[in-house]
Amino acid sequence: MKTLFLTIAIVLVSFQFQAQTITVSDREIPTEMTINEKEVKLNGTGIREKFFMDLYVGGLYLTNKSKDAQAIIKANEPMGIKIHIVSKLISSKKMIDAVEEGFENSTDGNQEQYREKINTFISFFKDEINKEDVFDIAYHPETGTTVYKNKSKKGSIKGLDFKKALFGIWLSDNPADDDLKEGMLNL
Q1: Biggest alpha carbon distance in the chain?
Q2: Are 114 and 161 in contact (CB under 8 A)?
Q3: Mean per-residue pLDDT for 38-62?
Q4: Rounded Cα gap, residues 184 and 72, in angstroms
Q5: Using N-to-C axis directions, what is the helix angle for 92-106 and 115-123, rounded to 10°?
């Protein structure tokens, strides 16, 4: 009887653990993120590819699930993006170049109004980037956008305007990767 109880307990714990993550490109992606004590749920995930090579797994976390990219970009509520680096080809310089291009696309070439904030955001990626690094980009109306690298806080940037431009990198009409956008929106 004791063995049966122990077996059931192990199965339940295993099930609970499995329900808290999903596997994408052999990486465990949590199904929840906490932003300033607010739980947000995984909306969808995808893989950023370039020239048929996987670069990173991206996950979008929202208060309420949505497939409406424009509504997500405009929303002034807690949300986050997780970037799990899966390629050793990603370097700090390549990430910074991609961020610059992403802001240009997201803002239809009008990124100069955000230049100071973009420069601050880019500074969060100046340290060496390695395969398996994880970046969490967390937005909360009270604190703005906070970036973490491997759970270590890199800094914060206030403003809904900046958050809209930033989330537009992945969700605008000209996203970093169409398939990644579709995955994040769970389409």
Answers
A1: 69
A2: yes
A3: 92
A4: 11
A5: 150
